[in-house]
Write a structure and sequence with these properties.
alpha/beta; Beta-carbonic Anhydrase, Chain A; five-stranded mixed sheet; 49% helix; binds zinc ion
Length: 192
């Protein structure tokens, strides 16, 4: 892994350990600190996560303001807004790490597993359908969990193809993109 990406990943995982062991950093934001932040940012990573109320990346990774870009969309799919975020985060601000985080108990994926009845989201729902098919073909003991994992991986592949900023940064060895799973019951994030 690229050293800068490794370092960013280590920071996120260290933050996740603090979060899930009940030792998050206690932070206050003094006016001078806010003024510093207003003058610029140097985030370490960009995270694509689900909009689920229980999966806020800044909290789960115990990161302060100015540390991570976040795009949140149902089922952490490769939405236009996620791609736009990456154009800014990777293309403009040169973060070395992109992480797509799926999570156990994802409502959006559960809906597709129960049979897609259509609705808002359109083509983005179909992206999850790919993961559902892939998961079913693997015949896992836990289909729901497997679908979440396949979906995070699918989003990574999709972003590598469809985000010019991500594609170029990977080609130029300036960035890496990884898929991860957030275990709702323990708070643990691990790569998948
Ligand atoms: Zn979800």
């Amino acid at each position: 892994m690229l050293p800068a990406a490794r370092s960013a990943l280590d920071d996120l995982m260290a933050g996740n350990l603090r979060f899930r062991t009940g030792n998050p950093n206690h932070r206050t934001y003094a006016l001078e600190h806010l003024e510093d932040l207003a003058n610029g940012q140097k985030p370490i990573a960009a995270v694509v996560a689900c909009m689920d109320s229980r999966v806020a990346p800044e909290i789960v990774f115990d990161q302060p303001l100015g540390s991570i870009f976040v795009a949140r969309v149902p089922g952490n799919v490769a939405s236009d807004s996620a791609k736009w975020m990456l154009e800014l985060a990777v293309g403009e601000m040169h973060v070395p790490l992109v992480m797509v985080v799926g999570h156990t108990g994802c409502l959006a994926i559960g809906q597709l597993l129960d049979g897609d009845k259509g609705g808002p989201g359109g083509a983005l729902r179909q992206e999850i359908q790919f993961a559902v098919f892939e998961a079913k073909s693997r015949n896992p003991a836990d289909l729901y969990r497997e679908a979440v994992i396949q979906n995070a991986k699918h989003t990574v592949e999709k972003l590598k193809r469809d985000s010019l900023a991500v594609y170029q940064a990977i080609e130029n060895k300036q960035c890496e993109i990884v898929s991860a799973l957030y275990e709702m019951k323990t708070g643990e994030v691990h790569l998948v």
